[in-house]
Design a protein that fits this description.
This protein is mostly helical. About 50% of the residues lie in helices and about 10% in strands. The chain has helices at about 5-20, 30, 35-50, 65, 75-85, 110-120, and strands at about 85-90, 95. The chain has a two-stranded antiparallel ribbon with strand order 1-2. The longest helix has 16 residues, at about 35-50. It is globular, with a radius of gyration of 17 Å.
Length: about 120
């Protein structure tokens, strides 16, 4: 007799195997839920100064190898870190992301659009 495994069962196995916070890597469908044109505008005005050159460990826009290890954490986590700010280490180097890229006037939506834009550049 054949048995089928439900999606719910597979989800539970995945969660137990990798932790409840585990997420799939970011997909095109994820970033397309954001306003990528607005994201580019926000990026050009606020984010490019660090992300174009990789300043303070910022992953360079358009350089897949700098983003690939970050994608598995999910878009929501990357946006959360960009809104709140982040300090850490990446491959032995110190990294620093100021909250909202150092511009407190940006809305969470604008930051989310900018992150989605940058991620889209490597998908």
């Amino acid at each position: 007799m054949k048995r089928t495994v439900s999606a719910l069962t597979l989800s539970a196995i995945f969660a137990l195997s990798f932790g409840l916070d585990a997420q799939a890597a970011v997909t095109k469908a994820d970033v397309e839920q954001y306003d990528l044109a607005n994201g580019k505008t926000v990026y050009d005005a606020n984010c490019a100064s660090c992300h174009a050159a990789g300043i303070m460990g910022a992953p360079k826009t358009g350089t897949a190898r700098k983003w690939n290890s970050r994608l598995p954490q999910g878009l929501a986590t990357m946006i959360e870190k960009s809104v709140a700010g982040y300090e850490g280490e990446y491959r032995g180097s110190k990294t620093f992301m100021p909250a909202k890229g150092g511009n407190p006037d940006l809305t969470d939506k604008q930051v989310g659009d900018a992150v989605a834009y940058m991620v889209n550049e490597v998908l």
